[in-house]
Amino acid sequence: MKNDKILVTKSSMPKYEDFIEMIKPLWETHWLTNMGEYHSQLEKELKDYLKVSGISLMVNGHMALELALQAFSFTPGSEIITTPFTFISTTHAIVRNGYKPVFCDTKEIDGTIDESKIEALITEKTVAILPVHVYGNVCNVEAIEQIADKYNLKVIYDAAHAFGVEYKGRGIGSFGDASTFSFHATKVFNTIEGGAVTFSDSSMYKKLYDLKNFGIRSQEIVSEVGANAKMNEMCAIMGLCNMKRIDTVFEERKKRVEYYEELLKDVPNINFIKGSDIGSRNYAYFPVLIGNKTSELRDKVYATLENNSIYARKYFYPITSDQACFKNGFKNVKLDVARNMANRVLTLPLYEDLEMSDIDRIVNIIKNEVAN
Ligand SMILES: *Cc1c(COP(=O)(O)O)cnc(C)c1O
Q1: Is 4 a residue whose pLDDT tops 90?
Q2: Which of 82, 165, 289, 370 has its CA 20 to 30 A from that of 61?
Q3: Ligand 1 centroid vs 324 CA: distance in angstroms?
Q4: Is residue 160 lining ligand 1, measured as CB closer than 6 Å?
Q5: What percent helix, strand, coil does the chain show, rounded to 5?
Q6: d(CA 78, CA 95)
């Protein structure tokens, strides 16, 4: 038996020679950051690939979210309806902007925000909805748009997991007023660290350009309290290299997810969170729900996998509203479905060169645990 550690994911990288070849010109230009040539080139490529009308690259997915929210200049203390079944970044971005998260429950079928529970949470302080296409599963974008139109709210999607996903032929980043992506090393597509905001209102481009560059409008004028969230040229080049391989990456991940699904589909106590077939899939994660009400069985499986040097992750547990920094800090909403999902979820190892025989091994361990 192999003793190598299997982690939940492994960063996707281009061939060493390809990267080295691409970075060579930097030793002539000495232009390493501040919206250089490769920054522009990657923005252009991604704009086409993601089928969006506007895009602004960022230093990471978190700053993409923070600055997208800042760009709308909501009144401090405004309420934003969001999901607690996500990575902590989503909630941090709201709170760090001085807004109040109002947590809404999720749907077990796909883990996304339960659109039927949004309207009841709207007050005169509500300014926006911030749903997450969690695991790359598409939110009910139509219902959310209807609610937003009815109450005059902005919609900002956290699309950190949804790189390359399409819905009804449209890029996922073209929905809502803005969407944010993460190109972190652990995501399907990475620029080492990186991210982007996508939008359709063309005035957003300049707004975000200034915000990611300290709010500097021109040499002598700083008109806004911005941040430093620029993507550097090394990272942009990593992105350009990884874009050349993206189709292969999706194909290889798809094979592995389909193999997992085939092996696990009739196993009692195991449920998938892939939702219906609305939207294309990008095979970003392979989460399963284990057991029924409590975390007991999930924790047992997690521990046994760990004892076999297989490091699955409890993505996302606990829900963000239960984290120490937010607990009891905000409006108390019933979040039974989200909390129950968090108690049972386990995200299994997935990356483009994960051995099929390792998947067999992982599944056998799980089957053995859930049967006992
Ligand atoms: C990864 C992630 C982020 C943050 O992106 P970074 O690039 O790591 O800053 C935000 N939201 C979700 C749902 C994520 O998974």
Answers
A1: no
A2: 289
A3: 19
A4: yes
A5: 40, 15, 45
A6: 10
Residue 340 near residue 293, CB atoms below 8 Å? yes
> Which residues, other chains included, contact 134 with Cβ-Cβ below 8 Å and sequence gap of 6+?
83, 85, 86, 106, 110, 111, 112, 161, 316
Instruction: Give the residue, out of 11, 59, 62, with the most ligand 1 atoms within 8 A of its beta carbon, to mutate for a pocket test.
Output: 62
60 C-beta closer than 6 A to ligand 1: yes
Are the C-beta atoms of 40 and 33 separated by less than 8 Å?
no
Q: Which residue has the tokens 């039974």?
A: 336
Check pocket membership of 313 for ligand 1, CB cut-off 6 A.
no
DSSP strand E in the chain: where? 6-7, 54-58, 79-82, 100-103, 126-130, 154-158, 166-167, 170-171, 178-182, 195-199, 216-218, 221-222, 270-272, 286-290, 310-311, 345-348
> Per-residue pLDDT tens for 158-174?
999 999 999 999 999 99
Pairwise CA distance, residues 299 & 310, whole Å? 14
* Beta-sheet pairing, 286-290 with 270-272: antiparallel
What is the CA angle 316-325-183, rounded to 5?
A: 45
161 Cβ below 6 A of ligand 1:
yes
Q: What are the tens digits of pLDDT across the range 35-85? A: 999 999 999 999 999 999 999 999 999 999 999 999 999 999 999 999 999
Residue 185 CA, ligand 1 centroid: distance in Å:
10
In three-state secondary structure terms, 347 is strand
C-alpha to C-alpha distance for 113 and 83, rounded to whole angstroms? 6
What tens digit of pLDDT does each residue of 262-279 get?
A: 999 999 999 999 887 888
CA distances from 277 to 79, 109, 167 (A): 32, 11, 10
